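P.,

For your records, the input lines for the assembly:
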Amino acid sequence: MTTAVAAPAVQDSVEKAQGMSADDLAREASALRDRINRFRLALGRFFVAKQPLIDLMCVAAVAQEPLLLCGPPGTAKSDLVIKFKDALKIPDGEYFEYLLTRFTEPSEVFGPIDIAQLREGRYLRRDRGKLPTARLVFLDEIFKANSAILNSLLTVINERKFYQDGQPVPVKLRILLAATNELPENAELAALKDRFCLKAACRSVQDEHFVELIDAGLDGFTHRELNQKPWIEGHATLEDFVKANRWLTHVLARRTIGNDGKELRDREIYFSDELLRELRRVLKTLVREDGVFVSDRKVVKLYRLLRTHAWIIHGGAVERADLKLLSYLGETRDEIDLLEEKVPRLLGLA
Amino acid sequence: MSKVRALAFSGDEALRVAIMSGLCPAEVQAKGARVARDAKGTLFLAPEANLSNAALKALQQHGVQIDAVMPDGAEDVTCWAEAVRLTRMPVLQTPSLVLLTSPDREGIINLAAELLRLGCERQELIVTPNGGVLRCVDPPTYTIVRAIDRERGLRGFAPDPHGQETVWTELGHKHPLAGRLKAEPDHLLLVAHDGWRNIKDDGWKSLDSALELAVAGTGVEHAAVSLGARRKVELRFAPGRREAPSLWVIRRGGTAAIDKLLEYLPEEVVTRLTFAAAGRNATMLSVPGMRLDDIAEGAIIIRARTGRHGPPDLSLDAEEYAPLVHMPDVYAPAGAIVEPPLRRERLRSILGIEPGQVVWLAPSNMRVPGDPIRGPFRVERILDSAFAPLSEWADYVIHASAPQLVPWQRAVVFDFAPFVSTGLEWASERPKEEKPDRDDDRDKGRRAKPARGRPAQAIAVSVSTPPPPPTPKAKKAEIDMSAREEVSIDAELAALEAEFVALDAPADAPERLELLERLGRSYARLGRRRDAGLCFARAAWEAQGKDASERMDTWLAADLGKQDPAKTLALLLDNKQPTPDDVRLVAAIAARGDAVKKDHHRVVRWLDDHDADLDARTLWLARAGLARLAGGDTLGLAQARDRILARLAGGLPVERELPSFLRFAGRSGALGNASGEHLSKALNALADKIGSTRRKPSPVEAPKHLTTAYVSFQLAHGYARIGQHVRARALVVEARQALAAVSTDAVHAYLVAAFAARVEQAIQGLPPETALPEPLGSQLAALDRVARYKVDRLREASRILEPLERPDAIGAFSKRQHDSRGPEFAALRALSDPTARAKEIGRLVEVASSSTETEKARLLDGVFDVLLELPENGAIPILARAWPMVASLPEPRHAVLYGEALVVAGHFGRTELVPQLLDLLGDAVKVVPGPELARVLDQSLRALRRIGLRREIAELLADVENALDAGNANIHARLALAAGLAYLGETARALPILEQARKALNEPMTLTQRLDLTRALAQAYAQAPIGDALAAIADLSGQLRDITDSFGTNSHYCLSVLHFVESLVLGIASDDLALGEAGRRFVEDDEHLIRRRLHRDLGGAG
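Structure tokens returned:
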């Protein structure tokens, strides 16, 4: 866990990005997209066969949707997140990571109770350097947390708020990444699991990429020993991701006048009816044949994510290949494995 | 063209009626016509064939205009039915057989390729000039949804009606006359909303004729050569795993080691251990370093039972083994694996493991301590039945004070002779000062009072151990308590207990709660913390707001005295092995809340580890208090609720939930029933009767000693249920010995283990419906078909072995199924995760919704059974979907299924569902066949009792009483009715029915009928007043002389004898009889109160 003080300049620019107008963002949109693409491709070079996961992290970060990485120990889950954070040059004060266990107490995540305030009858947490003040949060072994933490996390994810002395206080969280060794099938955790629209498996790559793994591993070792971070190449910043999110929010909400003078929604321009039917077909197949649970909330989120994916990867309307994002809808480890194989097969992209 | 211009029908419906009613001749309908519709929906039809004048007149009389002008835009149809529009239907399920068409040949080839890609290989093809038709089995949903969308001209059809393959209707549609449509000979008729198509059926071709599958590259032929001799690969150990040891082999000085073990191990750990003594064996000389002297006494093997806790750390100087690759009966040294890794079955076969054996792989080489284990090994084995509970070997005695053994022994045998209690025998701590004159002053019988609570302080194991330092509580008792005070408290207590029992008020009446609080204070003063806690928890249970806080404060003040709750809590939380009283105190502090704010999470974790034995009320109060502190931890509360509901599944566990005076009041007559002594005497008399009766066995009946051994198990179970634990254990040992010679037989091995487990559960006070230990499930599943049949026959007949499930042994044997409810339910056993189970059960309900009536009834029957195994939030949504489906089944099936739905609703306390189900059930019982009515009544009454609905029980019984005639044909149902009446206290109305059934036994009947009637009668008598019941059950035992059979199960036991004896044992030792009517009602009300508050606190939410 890191608790250094945040750099005020970055804080300001991020806050400013939050309030930018559509016109200002339109001027920057193309450059933003280029920067984010350079960022994701550059970061991919420091890993072996993890480009799809890095792409997914970028999509989740731009859409500001939480992402869950699921995989056994030693499959670079934490490394992905840390390098992602470094590459975005997020200062320590804006980053919070924690390994959760059933013994972790809320104060470790949300901050200890302020004793001085308590004496005055106020139940406040000292949240500096903790989750409420971080913009990028990484929670390792998230499902091992106890119910007190999980309940608070639900509020944070749902409402982007946490409670201080009974009053809701906004959190600064923009990107939430979580990792777990295993996905519990416990019904009590279903609500939290459902908040993670995207769940991706982080697999061992030694079978297919043995030599590359050793080379990359040794490079990583050298960098660590020499305290080098070559992945910090300055392609993009957290501010760029926030701007991209803001831009897409404007885009999804706008109405365009078509050739026939009719007002067109974003969907009518960027998501063809045929593809929308294809999306419905694939979802229906997954629900019926494999019992995959797709809540209404998830369907809406999915639309945003598909648009974000299309914007980042090729910049145009949603294409058939973008629907591969459906591979990450699995709720259990078995479903994740199944969907990663089945969705491309259904789409004829395998 | 006909001479009439056109017929005008008011709409499709009118045309349909004309076709179906025969107003128009079939031969005319079968010919073509031109059809048009106008804007008002009028349908104009100009038939090709002439209609007779009579037909025209008839049509006219029915409102058809017969000389209308055909509007423009008319289209040709091949027959009148084609003019009827299709209706839209949702496609809820992917049909298993589908016909797909594509407008062109390329499309059909691409379609076939898509189907192959998605795993559908069962395709056949008819190529047509315009494209083709593809028939496939189990098509992928994706393709079906594409066909429904008609993407790129793709269309899908399903046979309608089912069971034929010539008429196909487009997916998502239904033709109103589907059942009457016929295709031309050798043709397929494809019915779509935009026109029908006839396709010549010139034979389906396999896919190969349409797809040419090719392999790139040229083939290479390899010539086979013969191999040399088979390679011998020696299995060996390699280091590799970290499981904790759960089997210990002591080669030298085993007896002494066990003695030493028993000196320091807590009893809770000892009960988790079994041990076996291996005899002298010359082969042990092959053990490295072993000398002849060492094996003089043989080896001792200690084995930990599998359970919720991991194996204990024994710190023994012994070889340590852990189970190998999840095989509970095969062990390898802890820290070692077998190389090369082999499949489980292969390894078992190589090691030669037989069922009923425990095998461990011992290293062949001497091992240097600390070094990893490597190298070859040998196989050592012993019979599973050789293991006995270690606790049976330990005679715990009170150190140097023989007279004090008396109360302890009496506690173990639960022999509750009348006496006046001082209560001091039950105290958690004895006062330090001896009070010799106290014993002199009192009736000696008082020393026989069962010493419950914590006897451990006064007990040492074989050798003397210093008593533990007194706790602050004990010191307080020493200071506060004088003999005079004890006597006065005793008298006060006795008066309070009597007042409580005599009080004619509901279980939640304020005066009862007041009394409970006073009782709690008195128990606390005497140091009887368990009873005090149970009384205080009850008193606080119904209170709300400030009143609840005050009651909790009273509890804490009584238990803690002047000690600070926070400090006491801190001390207790440091204790890793707390007593039940400590756990209850922590729970009470947590329930009050104030003192745990600082240590909230620590308290939660501590309780997670230690609260397994808390009573339901204290557990819930604690969890609710902690949840309040956390600002509303609904997740935690829901988990606690599910744990409590799971405990209540088989009824209220009286041993854990009731204060002692209420438990034993039931048996001592205070709550209106007989003493335990009477029950014990009745069982003794039954045992004597069984021993002395000279039966006339059939020529093929099983050897007497085998059947007698199982009878001993049944009696042991009876004794265990009424608290005669010593007798029960002795009978188990006796039975095991009698069956020792056949213990390797798979049938005996399972039955012995299952009966022994049931007796052990009864001794522990677990409800009869508690599931058997998990390994027995695997053992059962591993039985071959014949052995399984023999075991299932006894499971089918035995309510001890299977109190809930009714396996159909013969059905399962003949259908080769492992669950008589169907293969789906056998597969459910493999799903241990509740979410996955709920999902699968939900799927079964979906399947049932579109199944035939018989199949639907079977699936729903099974689903209601298995819902009880789910947590509430999984079960209730499924119940809500399932029970309305019962209405679509034939009426005679309703009663059983509504009864089962009622059981589920009752189990989860969903009283809002009950009135509707009860109404339906009330109607359904009027048409249910007699034999099924008995089952319906039995389960429904139990469900209603559980949620405290006495009035509803009376109404249901009235419905049944009216629906039943008084003849012997419905005697089982009438007995169930009598049991219900007896439960309501309507003994006068119940006894004549019971008497009628007794008389019916004197009439000629088959053996099976006799056994079933005896069981039903014994069960019904269990609800009757004790005097009538025990006398009648003793009378029933007179039939034993004629009980025998020639079933195939005589290879192992005589089924009829066991069936008969068990009926009587359960009649005597049923909870109903042991508690008596008033006690029983109290327990059921009590359970209702627990459920009511759980649902109230959680708002009934799932």
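Two observations worth noting. Residues 402-646 of chain B form one domain. The longest strand of chain B covers residues 131-137.

Regards
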